[in-house]
Amino acid sequence: MEVQVAPLRAWDDFFPGSDRFALPDLKDISKWNNRVVSNLLYYQTNYLMVAAGLISIVGFLSPLNMLIGGTVVVLVFLGFVWMSHNKDILRKLKKQYPTTFVVAIMLSSYFLISYLGDVMVFMFGITLPLLLMFVHASLRLRNIQNKLQNKMEGIGLKKTPMGFILDALEQQEDSINKLADYISKVKE
Question: Which family does the record claim for this protein (predicted)?
């Protein structure tokens, strides 16, 4: 399967004034989750650019610790994903509480990195970019182009790096199932 990089969205679309931002409905976690997933897919290249900038700054200031920190986070993430595919209880936890799953990965990484070395590298080089992505994806309202692009991603017309990460976290299956149900209804 060919991996495609999503296009870089215009910066004025990515971060305009407050007119395109709103607090999510904290009572409807499913709707909030859909907004976050949708924005993560749509703005993934913009998020990558912001994260690369922050990681580069921290990496320049402390390259060895950044390399160790990044390696630990990747290995912990892969370990958690592997365990969740082999243990039903973790699979259910990941599917029902994706934020808890990501927090568990980050806390495990934090403790390993604090054991190995510099915690500040973890905080500014790894956690800060992830936190900024989550806050932006939570607050940014979706537009028509965003929704259309995500439908294409959901039905497999285009596979992107963020799509693979969200698949590993099992955050796209519901969207794909809903879209498949909709398509089958339209055909009838």
Answer: Belongs to the PRA1 family.
